[in-house]
Design a protein that fits this description.
Layout: E1 2-8, H1 12-28, E2 34-38, H2 42-48, H3 54-62, E3 65-70, H4 85-95, E4 100-106, H5 119-122, E5 126-132, E6 144-148, E7 151-155, H6 162-177, E8 182-187, H7 193-206, E9 213-218, H8 219-228, E10 235-238, H9 240-253, E11 261-265, E12 271-275, H10 292-304, H11 309-324, E13 327-328, E14 338-339, H12 342-354
Parallel strand pairs: 1-2, 1-3, 3-12, 5-10, 8-9, 8-10, 13-14
Antiparallel strand pairs: 4-5, 4-11, 6-7, 11-12
Helix pairs in contact: 1-10, 1-12, 6-7, 8-9, 10-11, 11-12
Bound molecules: nicotinamide-adenine-dinucleotide.
Length: 355
């Protein structure tokens, strides 16, 4: 199991170091992991002049999975667009053909007060949103703004082939199979033909997964239900644009950006794993950033790329215990809890892994 480690910029190196400690501990317990580090983003620009240099391209192509911290920072904001750290991110996603984005929104019972919603609505929330990442209206052609009859007209094309829908459907059904076996597909079939096809292909694919219960929901209702009663959902699957919006909505139900991991997968479950937050330049070098999103990304990697469910659960259980023991970084701190820094949080998780 070859893992490319790209710490990136800002808090990236600090938070990734804690996830690496956890992976090293599992390695000592017999898990066959090979970790190799590389550069992406601003640090790569500094060292090589490019955000996604050839040496990194080779490293991630050879690896089975990639663990990423975050990229970017004010130092790079004035660079020409093709040299910005974010270009490195787009480059790696494209190079690895990562079409499936998996974003869990989990609210640990001990953090129920972190949400802006009432604790009784969100306590115990555990949703997985599967978003198609390389198609839909974001990439469809034709697109543009042009003059028609003397006025500007803007247009984009919502387009999905059945092959694109089917491959994300398989990812979602397989993810649901590893969880509570309920999948809700979100579309807008009442007005968009493209999403009628989405619904039809989801229904056809369901025949391969008789153990998973498939339901369908219109996107406007899904946005409302996520706020009204989010715990009704197990796995949700949707297209690129609806997924963009719903996954941000769902992640914010938990109220804690430092807690949420993500995975982006190709059609052979090779994946890029990263926290959903950015490089937080305001926190860099201060030993205050929350490393749990990155540590939980490592758990997702063991589950989705390597099929090591037991080790994934071991990391997630350790995180739950650490929260129950009262350890908090400043972003999730409440009076009466034990405030720790980035390394201190890593220590606490490690103690629960090896303990
Ligand atoms: P951000 O996610 O870095 O920070 C938003 C807020 O959340 C900040 O107040 C920050 O201090 C806090 N925060 C973020 N991660 C945290 C953690 N682990 N623990 C505690 N608090 C945390 O978003 P931003 O400020 O908009 O962007 C900063 C830089 O990150 C920019 O250069 C942006 O382009 C980049 N960025 C990168 C990625 C990525 O690498 N995938 C994603 C988003 C933003």
């Amino acid at each position: 199991m070859k893992i490319a480690i790209l710490a990136g910029d800002g808090i990236g190196p600090e938070i990734v170091a804690q996830a690496v400690r956890i992976l090293e501990a599992l390695k000592s317990d017999g898990l066959k992991l090979e970790l190799e580090t590389g550069m992406l983003g601003g640090c790569a620009v500094d060292a090589t002049g490019e955000p996604f240099p050839e040496v990194t391209r080779r490293l991630v192509t050879d690896a089975d999975a990639v663990m990423l911290g975050a990229v970017g920072g004010p130092k790079y904001d004035t660079l020409p667009r093709q040299l910005r750290p974010e270009r490195g991110l787009l480059g790696i996603r494209k190079a690895l053909n990562l079409f499936a984005n998996l974003r869990p929104a989990i609210l640990y019972p001990d953090l129920a007060n972190a949400s802006t919603l009432k604790a009784e609505v969100v306590a115990g929330l555990d949703i997985l949103i599967v978003r198609e990442l390389t198609g839909d209206i974001y990439f469809g052609e034709p697109r543009g703004v042009e003059l028609r009859d003397g006025q500007r007209v803007g247009f984009n094309t919502m387009i999905y082939s059945e092959a694109e829908i089917r491959r994300i459907a398989h990812v979602a059904f397989q993810a649901a199979r590893k969880r509570n076996r309920r999948l809700c597909s979100v579309d807008k079939m009442n007005v968009l033909e493209c999403t009628q096809l989405w619904r039809d292909v989801m229904t056809e694919t369901a025949k391969d997964y008789p153990e998973v219960e498939l339901s369908h929901m219109l996107v406007d209702n899904a946005a409302m239900q996520l706020i009204r009663n989010p715990r009704q959902f197990d796995v949700m699957v949707t297209g690129n644009m609806f997924g963009d919006i719903l996954s941000d909505e769902a992640s914010m139900l938990t109220g804690s950006i430092g807690m949420l991991p993500s995975a982006s997968l190709d059609d052979r479950n090779k994946g890029l794993y990263e926290p959903i937050h950015g490089s937080a330049p305001d926190l860099a070098g201060k030993d205050v950033a929350n490393p749990l999103a990155t540590i939980l990304s490592a758990a997702m990697m063991l589950r989705y790329t390597f099929d090591h469910e037991a080790e994934a659960a071991r990391i997630e259980d350790a995180v739950k215990k650490v929260l129950a023991q009262g350890y908090r970084t400043q972003d999730i701190y409440e009076p009466g809890m034990k405030k720790v820094g980035t390394v201190g949080m890593g220590d606490a998780v490690l103690a629960n892994i090896v303990g």
